[in-house]
């Protein structure tokens, strides 16, 4: 069977930066280490006044098309995943296509366009749609452009304000991909939850503490479901495990859950048992609460072991390097986790071709998905072409006053005009309705 997967990825960050320990924490009267150590964040990306989900998505897609030498005729569908949409009828992909058509000779009239919504997991769902479309043989030799783009902003004073971010990830899905092949197998954990909602409102209503518990519960179910079709996952089979990263501290919790799960009934559990005891089994406890307490104690001991810390340092920590500097990108978040991991491997000169990634996506509301990916021979050239370090270094570092101004400017309920903090550099800009997506 021909491999189908991600041929290329491009990332586009919002052009502004908030220094969380240096600027944000002091203004909030908080200890900077809550950000650097607790949440695991140094900075977040923010959109300048001329940026939005369309411009960031179009900019990422344009860079991808230029680099891969793609023309509109090579692309048979454009799917945009976002939870920051502003139009309940016309999908964001039509706006993005409009931007791209203004700079290419061809058009996208032949392309199927859509918008995927299921909170942050929608980016992965769009990948799955593209995969299924190609596997079904409906693509007529064309690939799919999948764009995950969000301005993840929270109301001022909301606990989520600490975890904001803005950026887009564009991916080209095709046969014989250069970057990763997607697995046929997937596992799901899905339940009707109300921890994070945006019912016709721009900023989310979030029960933050509960959202953390829901993330972990759905991820555990997805892992079990994945193993029921793909067979047991063993820690040594997985080179990296990129997970949805609303903030790196969340992934610290998810990683421990995953490790406990994939080491149960293995020789690793036996070895660990000498140090910290065997994992608690549900059947050994009369009630749920006692079982949960025992699991919590086991996890507390597990995270102190050298064996766990080594696995975390090798398999999880490299997935967090970009998130630490950009915050939450919602639909794009798990996709920058994949890039972070491969970027680390590239910088270390590792040979990753044929290695396996275990990808954990999550969307509030709520659903988790686990699938595997196999790194392809062309991965190094793809990583070499990325300019994410330059993009991050070029962001404008906001003062607190700048932040308040730009946050108000992006608040749909306020009518505030703000000067640009940065100058567009050959990119699509939002300059008001009717002038959307001009390239300046
Ligand atoms: N030094 C070191 N660590 C510190 C510290 C200090 N001085 N102060 C606090 N910390 C630690 C805390 O112990 C905590 O770590 P643990 O959870 O491991 O105990 C961490 O820093 C965060 O501190 P708080 O829990 O006090 O932070 P908070 O109450 O202000 O907010 C939050 C945390 C609820 C997650 C909030 O950021 C939030 O609401 N975020 C938005 C929702 C979200 O991202 N949920 C994640 C799951 S849902 C999802 O993934 C979908 C999505 O993208 C939104």
Give a written overview of the molecule.
A hairpin with a 3-residue loop joins β11 and β12 (367-375). The protein has an 8-stranded mixed beta sheet, sandwiched between helices. 48% of the residues are buried. It is 40% helix and 20% strand. It has a single domain (4-439), classed as 3-Layer(aba) Sandwich (Peroxisomal Thiolase, Chain A, domain 1), CATH 3.40.47. The N and C termini lie far apart (44 Å). α1 crosses α2, α3 packs across α4 (92-101) and α6 (208-230) runs parallel beside α7. It is globular, with a radius of gyration of 21 Å. It has 15 helices and 15 strands. It has helices at 20-28, 32-39, 53-68, 92-101, 122-135, 208-230, 248-263, 267-276, 288-302, 306-316, 323-326, 333-347, 379-385, 388-393, 400-409; strands spanning 4-13, 16-19, 43-46, 75-81, 112-116, 143-152, 165-175, 180-190, 196-197, 205-206, 356-363, 367-375, 396-397, 428-429, 438-439. The chain is an alpha+beta fold and 440 residues long. Bound molecules: acetoacetyl-coenzyme A.
